[in-house]
Amino acid sequence: MNLQTPFDTILQSIHSLSTQKRNIMEVCGTHTVSISRSGLRSQLPSNLRLLSGPGCPVCVTPVSVVDAAISLSQQPNVVVFTFGDMLRVPGTQSTLQREMSRGAKVKIVYSPLESIIYAKTHPKQQIVFIGVGFETTLPILAATIQRAKFENLLNFSMLVAGKLVPPAMAALMEDPNVQIDGFICPGHVSTIIGAQSYEFLVKQYSIPCVITGFLPTDIAEGILLLLKQLSSNRSQVEIQYTRAVSWSGNISALQLMDEVFEPVDSEWRGIGLIPRSGVQFKEEYIGYDAIRRFQISLERNAEMPKGCSCGDVMKGILLPFECPIFGNLCTPTHPVGPCMVSSEGACAAYYHYETVDRS
Fold this sequence. Notes:
Elements: H1 7-17, E1 22-26, H2 29-38, H3 40-43, E2 48-52, H4 57-60, H5 63-73, E3 78-82, H6 96-101, E4 106-108, H7 113-121, E5 126-133, H8 138-150, E6 156-162, H9 165-174, E7 182-185, H10 187-193, H11 199-205, E8 209-211, H12 216-231, E9 237-239, H13 251-260, E10 261-268, E11 272-281, H14 290-293, H15 310-314, H16 346-353
Helix pairs in contact: 1-12, 2-16, 8-13
């Protein structure tokens, strides 16, 4: 099948193949939003449960990184640059947005390269970019650091909190509390890392994986491909999103990442420490590491605010509305946990688009 296949035909096939309870996890916030906004979940068989995984980089950024960003913004002569979706992520005591209202020096940008321009024109100020994101963002972060080195910008540094998705998927498979029968692999990330990056999941865990696009038809077809694998006891990596994803990925982007970063064990908020799931600077670029420049201590802390179940939501153990504070104490206007902050967070998607009982 392809995009020309009628949506109803795909749904009929899904219903025909869905003969037992299955848990399918989408590991991408954009997929989560598309599923909720389109009403796809309500059109699927009742025994087919779609789970939202840790596909929101803002949601899994540790409290320590948020606290460090807030602390930097309060230092004399330091200007913090960040993507806008980090502003309202709760730290231990505050948020970047709240500190901005108190006079902290925080600037929102669409590209980290904007911070390079600012650093060149403000040589007496220390510029720090908060580098949060998955493999989709890491190449541009790497390019920014290379540009800073080429320009010999001594007043620029980066607080890197980048994450790698496949190790997190492996960590989910190792968790005895998590029950996943198949993965809808992230589309954007997969354009960079390629389908080959999930092959180890098939070999080690016999888990079916399908990379899909973001249209409801894409996702439905991906679900159907997973059900076909499950019904025939197969496990392989398939690419539904062939118009954008290849087996080997974007070689140039991967080389760029490899030139600047190396894997490191990393804390995922609400999930814990995952081996080789984050990145740090290679020795050649260590001079641009804000952690070293400002002697920042990032303490391990995977805890959520009291009552918040974001960790279990991102593991697929709970659906967002099964969290006791969802929709009452925790809303997009007054978020308690990070899953309600980001537009790609599962709780925000459910709140805006899903029909649930919030009483």
